[in-house]
Amino acid sequence: MRNVLISGAGVAGGTLARLLARAGWAVTVVERAPGPRTGGQAIDVRGVALDVVDELGLGERLRALRTRMRGMSMVDGDGHELFRSEEHTLSSGRLDSADFEVLRDDVVAMLLEAPGVEYVFGDSVTALTEEAHGVRVQFSHGGFRTFDLVIGADGLHSAVRRLAFGPEEDFNRHLGQYLAIFPTANFLGLADWQVWFRHEHTGGAVYPVRDNTELRVTLGFGSEPLPRMSVPEQKRLIAERLAGLGWEVPKLLEAMAAADVFYFDAMAQIHLDRWSTGRVVLVGDAGYCASALSGQGTSLALVGAYVLAQELGRAGHEAAFAAYERRMRPFAALNQALATENPEGPAAEESVERAKNAISLA
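RE: above sequence
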């Protein structure tokens, strides 16, 4: 039995773990968080990624949990409505599409149900040493293990990528924005309706989830790259950048200050000349992050994990990694372009349709 270490228990890591375990691999997943991550935003499953969730056996369950927005409003910094739509939302596109939007934590929770996978939470990879027949992996909590393959599915700030390919700054392309995401009670009384607000270089979105009992809040601002900050420092910075805005923004900032579950990061992309070296390979955001601005990060993670597992079932790791990259690179490039090229109107819809289906799972 071949054994593999996957670093990261998110969508890419969980998908790959489920598929490899089903194919007979001995799979270990290490995740630095103390347990499954909660919170985060609603994420889109689009195009060919719909086929992947069906192949995983999760399509029916995930569709049952989809968000069911009736539409959206856009307001300015004073709360004046700029426009509204009952045909699409900014987060998930057309409401009559076969694509669907679902909470990230619901997707991850289902993926973690995979039988035969060893999950190790609260630990991380600190060193990789390639040997003749495997990779010796050192862990932050001490000790080491040797695996046939190591797969970095550990996101934008991937430790595996840093150890195997070099420092993040060599591959990170900052997109000029920062976002914060957190849950709070639905004190606005929204019912299946999104509200977006914007003012100059700041803005955000609020939408209800969990049968309208909870809000997921996104707050953002434009900025050049910032130094690392603690969570209290991040919250203070957001409050400063959004200070003075009207509508419900002061209440949202109060909710943010009290939030125990909180995410904050730059909108950025990862670009590498290659996604594998020796017995180490990257998947999802670790290798080709498109950023939340693309709306395709989850689909890239699902499809990338599926293609990698498929190729590992066909050939040894060298040929499999090469075939995986050959198939995925055009797909990743088109989806990354969704965040940077910014077409409008029919051209934007055409770009999304082309990008989300630009790969075959055969």
